[in-house]
C-alpha cells in the first residue's frame, strides 16, 4: 500500500511540476502504479472540468 501512496504522491507532484530529484530517487515506485494512477487522475481531472463547465453553462455563468 505504501508503494501506491508513494506513486499517488508522485503523480500529483508531477501534475503540478514540483517533484524534487531527492524524492524521485528515494521513492519505491513501480511503473505500472505510475501509469494507472496517472491515467485515473487525468480522467478525474477531465470529468471534473466537464462537470464544472456544464454547471456554469446551465446556470448562465455564475
Could you explain the architecture of this structure?
The protein has one domain (2-58). Helices cover 79% and strands 0% of the residues. The chain has 3 helices and no strands. The chain has helices at 2-16, 21-26, 31-58. Helix 1 packs across helix 3 (31-58). The radius of gyration is 16 Å and the shape is elongated.
Query: Which word captures the global form?
Result: elongated
**What would you call the structural class?**
mainly alpha
Provide the low-confidence segments as ranges: none
Distance between the termini: 41 Å
Proportion of β residues? Answer: under 5%
Question: How confident overall, as mean pLDDT?
Answer: 84
Largest sheet: none
> Given the structure, what is the number of helices?
3
By DSSP, the count of extended strands is 0
Q: What letter string, H or E per element, gives the SSE order?
A: HHH
| Radius of gyration, taken over Cα atoms and rounded to an integer in Å | 16 Å
What is the total domain count? Answer: 1
Helix content: over 70%
InterPro entries: DUF2970 (IPR021344)
Protein name: DUF2970 domain-containing protein
Keywords: Membrane, Transmembrane, Transmembrane helix
Pfam families: DUF2970
Amino acid at each position: 500500500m505504501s508503494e501506491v501512496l508513494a506513486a499517488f504522491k508522485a503523480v500529483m507532484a508531477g501534475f503540478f511540476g514540483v517533484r524534487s530529484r531527492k524524492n524521485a530517487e528515494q521513492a519505491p515506485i513501480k511503473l505500472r502504479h505510475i501509469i494507472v494512477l496517472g491515467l485515473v487522475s487525468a480522467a478525474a481531472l477531465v470529468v471534473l472540468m466537464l462537470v464544472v463547465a456544464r454547471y456554469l453553462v446551465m446556470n448562465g455563468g455564475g
